[in-house]
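Take one record.
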Amino acid sequence: MSAYQSTKFAVEGLSESLRFELEPFGIKVVIIEPGFIKTNIMNSNIKAKGSSNPESPYFQVTNKVEAYFRSMVNNNPSVTYPTEVASVILDAIKSDNPKLRYPVGQDAYQILSAKDHLSESEFLQLIKKQFTEISNKK
């Protein structure tokens, strides 16, 4: 999970930097920030070999996180569909003055709002609580 999240964070940082760097050339960089999207991502993900070993300390948490992601993609009544992401991308492309960030989906708005309105320690507690709830599910 950390590798997945860190790559998203890196692309966001790169995009922010490129926005300022490329603006003088008339190039506009935007960040599309989708939440859980109803795709087949869980059928095409690759797990580290060690995490599939029942003896691994990561085995249980990896399986629980995977089950949580599957549930959010397949059983979440407010899940976002790829067509909504495509619509947001099209809106950004058509905009003469695009925003830097375009969240897509209710869950994306919620997490970004929490990050903006909570203190750092409150936000970290929220994330820890969610991770703990995932880890404690049977």
The CA atoms of residues 36 and 72 lie 7 Å apart. The two ends are 19 Å apart (CA to CA). Residues 35-97+105-136 form one domain. The chain has a mean pLDDT of 85.
